[in-house]
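Consider this today:
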Amino acid sequence: QVQLVESGGGLVQPGGSLRLSCAASGITFRFYNMAWYRQAPGEQRELAATITSGGMTNYVDSVKGRFTVSRDNAKDTMFLQMNALKSEDTAVYYCYAEGTGLYRGDYWGQGTQVTVSS
C-alpha cells in the first residue's frame, strides 16, 4: 500500500522558516517525480515546487528564492525548506508522487497545515 506522509507544518511568524518532510512507502521512490502542492482557504490547489527523479527542480514564481525542494532517495523522503515565510504562504501543503518509465501511478499525501501569522 502506497503512503505519502507529510510532517513539519505548524504556526510560524512572518519571516520565519519551516521544513516540511514527505516520507514515502510502498513505491520505488527514486523512480518517482515528486512535487509539493498547496491549497489556501477558498483557493484552488496550486503547484509550488517540483523535483524530478533525476533531481531537477522547479518553482512557482511566488516562492522562488525562498523555498528549496530536495530529496533523499536513501530515506525515501522529500523535503521543502521554506524561508522568509509570508502570510500568503498559509495553506495546506500536499506531497505528490508521479511514476516514471515502467513505474506507473500517481499518489497524494494527506496534507500538512502551514500557517504564517503574527
Q: What stands out?
A: The mean pLDDT is 97. The chain has no helices and eleven strands. The two ends are 40 Å apart (CA to CA).
